[in-house]
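Supplementary Methods, section 5.1.

A reviewer requested that the exact input to the structure prediction be made available. We therefore reproduce it here, unchanged from the version used in the analyses.
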Amino acid sequence: MNLVWHYAPWATLPQIVAAGALLPGEPGRDGEAPLLWFSARQDWEPTATRHVMDGGRPRPMTFLEHRQRLGCVRFGLPADDTRLLPWMDACRAAHMRFTDRRKLEASSRRVGANPLEWSASMEAIALAGLRFQVLADTWGEGDMSACARLWTQRRG
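The structure derived from this sequence is encoded token-by-token as follows.
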């Protein structure tokens, strides 16, 4: 079974576990519907890497910085799940403007991502039906609740 993944910082896991589901993001501009993104990449989705201030300007963290500062977790869903829309269909369903889509495609390619590997859901997806993994030296199965508690304890 092929899986697609929702990649996230480990730092967000306590809030995700508290919600009991992966939730679509914030609405976009001009009434664009929120989406919950997944990637077919099996290592890490470059667009999931956060930014950091450097000399007063934001820049994307390197993968190593992201991993060390925020940790990496992922949630797997079968690639053929009927709630998933391929990239272009998701853009249309969300009413994403053409120019916004093109800007997103260009910026994502600059960081090594491929929008054709993306799919999205317009609805929340319960954690109970997802495969959960955490990145240590390699991706491995983990207990979501235990990992959330561990993150909270370590960060105090």
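DSSP finds five helices and eleven strands in the chain. These observations are discussed further in the main text.
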